[in-house]
Please model this.
Amino acid sequence: MKLRDVFDNISPIDYRYWDEEVAAHLSENGFTRYKLLVELALVTTLHNRGMCDEITVLEVEFACRRVTTEEVYGEEDRIQHDIRALVNCLRTKVSRRAKPYIHMTATSNDIIDSSNAARYMDAVERILIPALTNLEEVLITITLREAETVQVGRTHGQHAVPITFGFALAGYVSRLGGSIEALKILAEELPGKFSGAVGAHNASSLFFDDPEEFETEVLAELGLVPVECSTQIVPPEAMTRLLCEVAIASGILANLADDMRHLQRTEIGEVGEEFEVAQVGSSTMPQKRNPINFENTKSCWQIVVPRIVTVFMDQISEHQRDMTNGASIRTHPEIIAYAVHMAKRLTRTMRKLKVDQENLLKNLDMTRGGIVAEPLYIILAALGHPDAHEKVRALTLQAQREARSLEEVVVCDAEMKNYLEKMTPHQREIISDPLLYTGIAAKKARKVAAHWKQKLSL
Amino acid sequence: MKLRDVFDNISPIDYRYWDEEVAAHLSENGFTRYKLLVELALVTTLHNRGMCDEITVLEVEFACRRVTTEEVYGEEDRIQHDIRALVNCLRTKVSRRAKPYIHMTATSNDIIDSSNAARYMDAVERILIPALTNLEEVLITITLREAETVQVGRTHGQHAVPITFGFALAGYVSRLGGSIEALKILAEELPGKFSGAVGAHNASSLFFDDPEEFETEVLAELGLVPVECSTQIVPPEAMTRLLCEVAIASGILANLADDMRHLQRTEIGEVGEEFEVAQVGSSTMPQKRNPINFENTKSCWQIVVPRIVTVFMDQISEHQRDMTNGASIRTHPEIIAYAVHMAKRLTRTMRKLKVDQENLLKNLDMTRGGIVAEPLYIILAALGHPDAHEKVRALTLQAQREARSLEEVVVCDAEMKNYLEKMTPHQREIISDPLLYTGIAAKKARKVAAHWKQKLSL
Amino acid sequence: MKLRDVFDNISPIDYRYWDEEVAAHLSENGFTRYKLLVELALVTTLHNRGMCDEITVLEVEFACRRVTTEEVYGEEDRIQHDIRALVNCLRTKVSRRAKPYIHMTATSNDIIDSSNAARYMDAVERILIPALTNLEEVLITITLREAETVQVGRTHGQHAVPITFGFALAGYVSRLGGSIEALKILAEELPGKFSGAVGAHNASSLFFDDPEEFETEVLAELGLVPVECSTQIVPPEAMTRLLCEVAIASGILANLADDMRHLQRTEIGEVGEEFEVAQVGSSTMPQKRNPINFENTKSCWQIVVPRIVTVFMDQISEHQRDMTNGASIRTHPEIIAYAVHMAKRLTRTMRKLKVDQENLLKNLDMTRGGIVAEPLYIILAALGHPDAHEKVRALTLQAQREARSLEEVVVCDAEMKNYLEKMTPHQREIISDPLLYTGIAAKKARKVAAHWKQKLSL
Amino acid sequence: MKLRDVFDNISPIDYRYWDEEVAAHLSENGFTRYKLLVELALVTTLHNRGMCDEITVLEVEFACRRVTTEEVYGEEDRIQHDIRALVNCLRTKVSRRAKPYIHMTATSNDIIDSSNAARYMDAVERILIPALTNLEEVLITITLREAETVQVGRTHGQHAVPITFGFALAGYVSRLGGSIEALKILAEELPGKFSGAVGAHNASSLFFDDPEEFETEVLAELGLVPVECSTQIVPPEAMTRLLCEVAIASGILANLADDMRHLQRTEIGEVGEEFEVAQVGSSTMPQKRNPINFENTKSCWQIVVPRIVTVFMDQISEHQRDMTNGASIRTHPEIIAYAVHMAKRLTRTMRKLKVDQENLLKNLDMTRGGIVAEPLYIILAALGHPDAHEKVRALTLQAQREARSLEEVVVCDAEMKNYLEKMTPHQREIISDPLLYTGIAAKKARKVAAHWKQKLSL
Model:
């Protein structure tokens, strides 16, 4: 252990947004642990093949438990090679008899890439997906609770036609559910490799007639499958796809957060983050109720998305590999770490979300006249009006000019009389009460919620 | 038609890298055509449901063929709304009887998003995937032809241990094959929508008891399925995933191109782009043979990758949608267009690739001593040498110092004598002739090639 | 000329946002024209140095006027080299006597980089800066007109304390003015080069004792200065800085547009884009007034910003140059083209901006109680209240709970009595009328406007 | 202090590339220290204006020294506001008399933005610029040392015409020098603010008739000037420009590193990183000499460049500010931290750079025939050959075909005889010995080195 004040750290992921669960897999200590697991898987496989005895496996297993990152870094300082340093530390902890089996036929990236696959898989399956699923559960709860709560739909920041608040959230349930499913598949598919320095199994071919089978066995110890064809490294596409999906998931969260913080604007006030008793909104304006958690989610997305470009840059490696992605690949875990932070924080915030019925209705009322324009135009068109859209546009402008409701203007319009009579009762009712014009919003909200509840076993 | 000199265009995709096949789907004219297909699908469905007669369908079909983009832009100039302009142009071309059925219950983005899904699906399935598959076929041919051609493997730009040239390409066959498969799935999965202004089927619910079924029928006319839940727009994730995969595919091409242009360096000379008789390498240096096609591939990747950030930014849309992605979403087709250009150009270049056997052997010989260090260390370790890696490192340095081959130094080293005697004949042979140390390179090359040949029916 | 329907173009910059003025410099035809200017500058300099006669200059000048891009592309198709193609086209148009002086000692990038410097400089100085300055002028007009128009200040989308609308715009006047100034300097500083194939003046040294002086003379013909040290190319930093500043300017525009479109939200309604008589807001919702121009500005920013990464990628070129930026560098003009489009469109929109006094006051009134919390806390603190922030926070919560104005609650609070008496009349007045609490907003607005009016000679 | 094992950190900037000097300014502790400096500057100014006595200043100064980040975070946990937490911690450490003057009239971002300006300015001026200047000094030394060392110039990875190694480095001296100068100006120009919650000096206007003068005085205590016009925050452009220039500087370093690692390729071998005695090149290939430091530099650039997009995203803040950049802005210091790491590591590596004269000459010799093609063509053209470029291209192809030197072929060519006779002796000499064809490379190298040595007082 090499202790340091966490506030001497430079990256906010290490002082402000650090998460113990994430660090268990994605810190340098986590990485060391997984690399040792790969070295152990190798010796286990050699034993399974009868090349070494069980004592050797036990020796290595015991040694693995005692290797520390600090020790490996000390050795690396001396010899300037990270994996050789790890191997040296391990070798000093076993008997002379066991030494030859450590790292046997392996190249550095057999260890690095396979341990990366294993720890990213674990981090996504055990931390990120559960965190997103917790959020999904909260969203489903709100979707069901507010399935019938009428809200004005908004496009371009302008009132459009009504939906329900539950329906608005159902869209996020569907999008987030889809991303969780995609993450599951992509995490499972992360492959490993054990094909040596240039991927052609050169070294293992010195000892085995079936080097590909040998590779499969080593990786199976880790719950991994081998990639079809490797160089010194596992081709980066599987990891790139996984990290793109993490960015996509974070985009869904950011979109939700953006919606919520705008709904929390002073003039809109349809939702609010619950404020803690002691919470301060502003250092000078005690009345402020700032949507800081929603803002934080959006801001983390601004961290995550550009870093995908680093991942794409890291996709390119010359010949059997160069190491121009050596440092940058070490930053990929940050993408997952920020996504986990976003999911956890947004879950806490959404769980406490207050929906303000009064303001919902007040806002719906603002243009109650206006939002009926769409059904009116559509019904007129269906009833054969030759230029329904233009007619309704004119009526709307008239209503605004005269500060009357659209219905009033319509009822008084000579040309409209005939059409009003031809409408079905339901159609006529909607012109009078736009709150009824929510289509299948409530039904759809419940359907989507039910689908994902079942699919994710919530 | 509104004619302009192509060289008055500003984007190179429109003067230098323009492709007729791509433009058929991804130009503004292509977009108009697909939007009209959606309007037609709507009327066809209304007819299927008995709401209008067949004459109406025929009228609309005939009208669709006569609407031009120029005309739509003219109308848009007047009314400042793109889809309403299209609808107006269409309506003026049909009888009064048919007018009400045009755009009935639809919102703009029912048309826009569904036509985008259809044309992106077509562009990827009919142009990009075939272009990539052509490249894959060329790569498979070279892989098989050069499966046994020994080449030095390189990591960090340094000679490592031998592979074969076919094996090096097999890695790209595998990666590209995987990306083609991914593109197929993602293109097929692009969903449409026909759920109205805020996604709750508000308008269609005025006429149908089963608005979701209605949506399914309209989209089926276009070979599309509806998204589970929409707002005014189709949630962007499916498109984002597709475009990420296009960027990933372009990264594979760029990586291949990078490898090839470095192998074409004057000092390496293992491959070369075939030069045309009249081709000029430099405006002042007539001797130059520049890898301009490989450079072009890399450069197009530098265009494509950052634009993925625009796609991620476009993922976020407030409430039921805002239009802060209105202009930027129009640039997404460029990503596919550049990828197609890269695939076609790289195919032409790889098809003519010359592999220089002489230089391959010359380069292998440069460190023939050196590249045997790995098998030597591994065999020593397996034979129980207590510190094999360090021992071989010392022998290598000695060989360099004394300008002798590593084998010579080994044979003369007292400590080594014993180990040399314990080696198997095959192991001993490899120490003498590193060209034999290619592991399963040739076999793997053929296996990978066969797999993708079969999988892609080549 | 090679004609094509503009709607067969793939990039929106070539069908929807194309601008003749921009194309004059930044299209391929514009590029050809500038490249010919450089070739002419070379011959002019040779003449000035007595190496060729005036007839030669006139011949070349006349030939330059007749070379077309189409012709150059035809020749390039044959010989696969763009600048050699241009040179060949030029040479065929002059007498045998004049031929040797064309392109004499030049390498392709002497022509390309110098013409790029010249045309980017012109495009920025003649088009982008004037377009931004027009916008600046409109902003200054509004700033002065609305200098006293009280508006609630907003942070986190929540009401904070009052400002004036003119003050809000003054911030943009200041930011945009700063960016215009920066652009001027960076455009002027774009250097050219005439130092041959690897930058060491190898070729010109064959003829001149003072090759650097010769370079200076050629570039002076174009209004350029030479870069201190070049390779085959001009080091990319000056261009990178210029394009970063273009992105920064576009960010300022996007920020302004974002503010305006949110102020146009149905619930806020403080500003509005003027609607044209025939304008349609939605294809189905005739009542809509969508802020499409502000949305377009933001969307173009989403195009521009990620492309800066391409510019940064293009900064790296191996050794004396590689051409992995050959295609991508051709897309840099698009960055400027979008910025010009943004500036022109936003200018038109801001020019017609309606400010709604009624809604401004209505919104100010929403929390009139609340926004006085800050001055109250600050005055209390200054008067020695031991825990002013906490006290006011409690009073604010009480006012909300009891639905009374903050002033009322304060006046009734026993502890407050003493403090109210100690306040200056101005301080007491502000507690009663928050509209007075605008600090120096109006004065600052006028000061900033005056500064930039004078600085930019508006 | 809150201790943690550094290897439990997630970001490599906090375990592998952490730098004490950087952390002093850019860690969270560094940030706290600077924020306290701003609070102290405020009280000092109040004292200078006679509003509080000197004892108060001393009390606050003493209290500032005792506030710890851990304590502030503890308070923030309770009240959910970072700056209010800092203020509370400070207030508890001073007498009741002094409390009112702490944070008087300030808003959070008066403190945050001003302290950010101060610490970024310091980090750039005291750490980054010195680190880059150290590198510049090493590059100047090599430039001068190798000013005459002939090296083949390379374009497209192909041999072009000769330069000198010192000249190649002079290009970097010039580029890096330019970036250092730009950084100096941009760091100095970082402005602060002390204008309150919405930038209109609302609060300070309650107490001062000259709130702008008051702002100027507070910031002067910190060596800062006020920005012309602010909202709640300092407009982000100055910081954006600074960080863009940091990315530009890192691009120059990456370009240099790319050149060096390619020159270190086994087949080229013109330079090499000095290897330490105990250093291990590969975990399995003891002979390897990998350019890991150059690769690391490039890789860090792949971290830095995409993050500029975060900076651009953070440029946009709604109205008087939103906090969607609250988390992301905390990652900006990482950009500087990586740049410092790159500069320091590259300096160490370049200082030990070995230039291999033997390989330089060997490589020059590879196409000695070829690289004379340029001067030959140029001289022929100048001597009036009607189609010199084509003629030399043909001769070059002939020389390659016949495996003879270009000079041989030329001398034997009938048409050439006449031209050879007309050449000056120097021209004729160059055709025979391409090593002479280095133009003004050596002279330019020395000139550039001298310029920057003087300019940077090295």
About this structure: The longest helix of chain C spans residues 108-145.
